[in-house]
Amino acid sequence: MTSLDSPPRWDVTHWPLRVEEYLRKTQNPLHSAMLKNYYRHLLLELADHGDQILLTEPSVDEPACRAASTAPSPC
Fold first, then answer.
1. Spatial separation of the C-alpha atoms in residues 70 and 48, rounded to whole Å
2. 57 to each of 10, 60, 61, 67, how far by Cα in Å?
3. The pTM is what?
4. How far apart are CA 48 and CA 18, in angstroms?
5. DSSP-derived 3-state class of residue 30
6. Residues 28-61: pLDDT tens digits?
7. Apex CA 65: angle with CA 12 and CA 75, to 5°?
8. DSSP conformation class of 44
9. Quick check: 31 and 19 in contact, CB under 8 A?
């Protein structure tokens, strides 16, 4: 296998830097809050602290997850 065959290096700094860039440009407070939440989630995952993502402090009392899909529901 040559170096031409090897996959490119995965740079974990790419995503946080892009989120920071979008945060600087965002004017909408809702979008800014969403980006900050995503940024925190991303950094916790990259730091291998995934167990802290759903702590009670930044969550509502009864969280509800909503997902959309075109696939049939298994339930």
1. 32
2. 32, 8, 9, 23
3. 0.60
4. 20
5. helix
6. 999 999 999 899 988 888 888 878 877 666 666 7
7. 115
8. H
9. no
